[in-house]
Amino acid sequence: MLSAAPRARAASGVLYLHGFNSGSGSPKAGLMREACARLGLPCATPQLPHRPRAALALAEAELAALGPAPLVVGSSMGGFLATLVAEHHDLPAALLNPAVAPAGLVADWIGQRFDNAYTGERFAIEPAHLEELEALTPARVTPGRYLLLLGTADETLDPRRAFALYRGARAILHPRGDHGFAALADYLPAILAHGGHALAPARQGDKNDRNHFG
Known about the structure:
Elements: E1 14-17, H1 27-39, E2 43-44, H2 52-61, E3 71-75, H3 77-89, E4 93-96, H4 103-106, E5 113-115, E6 122-124, H5 127-136, E7 146-151, H6 159-165, E8 170-174, H7 184-194
Parallel strand pairs: 1-2, 1-3, 3-4, 4-7, 7-8
Antiparallel strand pairs: 5-6
Helix pairs in contact: 2-3
């Protein structure tokens, strides 16, 4: 059973950080914007550069427009970046299948080329990506600030690694959930509750994007 959310002031906005080679136009980013609109909350879903340091800098630059204490939400590599933002700025965060020590994953992609379906950008993974990720990876985190949402059938990342790094955080395990966390719509109330807001569950007809990734 999920423990009660810690008592804290309500989040002043939401920063959503998409995963690797995804975009601000992804279905998950759209669902987050729609949920925030229902609550009248400012929401930023920036299109992140593929280079880690540049992505982190852009994410942190978005905070100024989101009030004094925003909630940070991140998916996959965006979960890694959300962790860095939350730790640097003492903020609560909700993480969807977050990447843990992502330099190990990227090491297998050196020289591989990618096309971003949301921006049309084409890029290759270079050793600099690996070096930046290694330098940015935190040795430890503050578990009490996080809500973890982990798919038990994640085909890309081992959920046990995230569970170990964030041990002590509030956690939701989605049975047979994949890496894309296609059931995000079902968990938006829990995510917003972590930021101190009550979001009514979506109606069944509102879940048009639940089979999409991003």
